[in-house]
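lol ok so funny story. i was supposed to be doing the assay writeup but got distracted and ended up predicting the structure for this chain instead. priorities right. anyway since i did it might as well share w the group, maybe its usefull for someone
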Amino acid sequence: MIRIAVIAANQTEDIELVTPVDIWRRAGIIVRVISVEKKKNVILAHGTKVSCDEVLAKENLAKYNGLYLPGGKGWTKFNEIIAPKLVTFCQKNAKNKKVTFMAACAAPEFFVKYDMLSPNAKITCYPSQVDEKIKQHYVKKNVVISDNFITTAGPGTVAEFAIEVVKKFISPSKASEINKAMLYI
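and the output, tada:
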């Protein structure tokens, strides 16, 4: 069974959290939303209140096939001060092909900040995030799959991204089935 941990914080971009979780669950993927806050409840960037499944301090990230970091201002809490367990796990497993690391919008910067990418790895992100550190890895596309990383550019691209994840973890036919059911063709 495929398992994905979705990391959430206050100010996470609403659509970037909710849309992939919904699509992945439709595909039969076990998805758990994990809060980096001290409490399970988070308030997303546009006021949506979410009750996460668990807080990061109590979660075992090693049991997941994928780890997803949505964007919005909340991604800045994915750091060694607020979420050292997350940073340590990601750095330790960056080259582990059994774990797929995913991020949206501004959050792919996490992979660069914590030196997780190989020199030739490619990512996409929200265009205003492209700076000198990200530039060498950046590709201007909606979704980029490179090594064991899948990234997406922003809120308007997360459905396409989530479908690509279904293709990778489940099958292209399941992704097509979900596309048709959601009228996302």
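The mean pLDDT is 97. The CA atoms of residues 25 and 138 lie 29 Å apart.
back to the writeup now i swear
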